Amino acid sequence: MDETPAPPPPPTGQVIVLEPLVARVLAPNPSPFTYTGTQTHLVGTADLAVIDPGPADAAHHQALLRAIAGRPVTAIVVTHHHRDHSPGTRALQAATGAPIVGAAPVFLADDGPRADAAFDTDYSPDRVLIEGDTVAGEGWTLAAIATPGHTGNHLAFALPETGALFSGDHVMGWSTSIVSPPDGDMGDYMASLEKLLAREDRVYYPGHGEAVERPQRLVRGLLGHRRQREGQILRLLADVPRGIAAMVEKMYVGLDPRLLPAAERSVLAHLIDLERRGRVRRDGAVWVAA
């Protein structure tokens, strides 16, 4: 995928205060798909929301309990059901008694090898949130914004008191998001980016990577990037029918080989979207211009 060079890894397990109402704790799960690791965000002061408790990792769980420091947890909030975001909900709920709220559980059969993080099949929220639903505590409110695309159930959460948005994996601070069918949908992903572009959020706090200080600029860039990829596909197919691997070879020159399966999934997502719009069609193992 397209990514920025990795800076020195930030410290895992430490509380980093981002603004008076927001802190984060980095999980020790770096990888080609998670960058320096999953970032769990804590919202509030007297009482808290914990957004995306991360993987089922004992060290990260203990770090979160230290960060919570005995304060009441109003809600454990989940943006989506991938294994680097939601498994930590179970231990945190057992420790705090807080309800698990947010994204719906999604269980889908796949049509090919997965390249993104595997589903957390045990994820079971106490309350599923939809567009406009809120959870609140003393001095803070989190409003759900439906942002499907990376996954079918993905939610972002706005913090209107400060103008911040917790963007999960829909918009990240280091790379474009993987869109892997059938759960990932490129048409939905683009529509969700357009939805965020129409907002006036001050800053994004993503699940991976640093805070995004000029979010509208980044979202415009992500939309442009995806349209550029779509144009590449259409130009390649205008020359000759091609399979996905052959397209990826032309489109992602110099990509880390570990990320090639993810690139193939994103190209497939583009092709499915183009097929729906009547721009391409399948012919056996290859795709052709319509």
Automatic annotation (TrEMBL):
Residue ranges constituting the Metallo-beta-lactamase domain according to the UniProt record: 37-208
Coiled-coil region list: none
Source superkingdom: Bacteria
PANTHER family registered for this protein in UniProt: ENDORIBONUCLEASE LACTB2
Protein name as annotated: MBL fold metallo-hydrolase
Species of provenance: Sphingomonas corticis
